[in-house]
Design brief:
The chain is mostly helical and 436 residues long. It folds into three domains: 60 residues, no CATH class; 220 residues, Orthogonal Bundle (Hypothetical protein af1432); 123 residues. The chain has 19 helices and four strands. It has a two-stranded antiparallel sheet with strand order 1-4. A hairpin with a 5-residue loop joins β2 and β3. α7 packs antiparallel against α8. The longest helix is centred in the C-terminal third of the chain and has 28 residues.
Length: 436
Amino acid sequence: MTDPFDSADIGSADSPHYLRALTDMADRRTVVADAAIYTDNGIKLVEKGARIDSRLYDRLVQHKLREPIDRHLSIENPVDVPTLLAAGQALIEQEALPNMLAEALGSGARLLAPLRSLPMPASMACKLTVMRDQRPELFQHSLQMMTVAVFLGIKSDLSERDCCTLAAAALLHDLGVLHMDPAWSDPDNKVVGVQRKHLVAHPITAMLMIRDTEAYPRAAEVAVLEHHERMDGTGYPRGLTGANITPLGRILLLAEVVAAFYEKYEDMPAQRLSLVLRLNHRKFPSALVMHVLPLLQEEVARESALMPLGNDAPRQIDLLAEAFVYWGKLKAALPPGAAAKAPAGSAFAFADARLQALQKALIEAGSHPQHQGELLAQLQGDAIGMAEVALVGREALWQLQSILNASHHRWPQLSDRATPEDAAVADWCAWAMQRL
């Protein structure tokens, strides 16, 4: 396979955000230049042996450096393999998800064993130290995702060597986030414009940073590049479909989702994750999902008993039903044959395909609004069932909102109603904006 990023400039220079994080870290632990630091045109910015700290930030950020800054630094108490093993053990003991995985394997040591063979060049130790000190939530996420990935690798009968490659890819998959503005992770911050481009590009940035070390197998680079792809082609950065995603990439894309649910949701993460994996089964590798779902069942029963969710279900069902019925009426009002002739890249084709896919997924999950009235009557007193109905509704309404957002973002001219098909999408979006 040819590599479309061989000549990419993404990740080839230290970003202002990474330089800020590194120099701020250096105010709290000793960081020394092992070699002089030069600009790309030969101007010496920092002498060999000089102490790095935040006072150097303004000087460093004004120039493109000859080499990445972390290639020749000595750091006090850097992240190394023993540090990672200790942090991983603490994670298994303290966090529900890695603890559950360790119990399923009979030993937490099996989850951590691949780390013992992890290459740790100086530049990578620096990046992980910056992550640990400046972005601790990202460091914890990377460790937790590593435990999920290794679990899936073991359950998939990967060789010891492949599990080591997988562990490296999982641990390093979000290095590109260090080059992004930390504001992107604020839930109140809407990621748009340049921030959105950086978010979509961060797998490429991470892949190039890993490649630059020349310390990791090619399979690790590719898996990192693919960790936000989806089996149905809706992921990024390349929109690959299942057959074109590598085996390690498939493991990473699922491990990312599993870890994210346990990090994002304090209430009912197992039930939410179980539902999303089943409701969106075309997005995730089914053979790997089957290793995860059985682990969630006991947690689902416990969560539902403690925190039943069902009060919102009737309203959610009504909203979903109205959304599908209204779209059907708008399609029926189009000129004969117009819907079938809509261009593949049009707003109408997009909205129609997404709404049909959502209805099909709800039917397959036994949760289509047409069927849920009778279902709710049958589930009275069933905490697990009522909780799942409510969660299905929430997920489906979120997907309706994503259709609305994508339509506005990709086709801002919809409000002009230039064609009957555009007018139909604009009318549905206006309805959704008012009701959702």
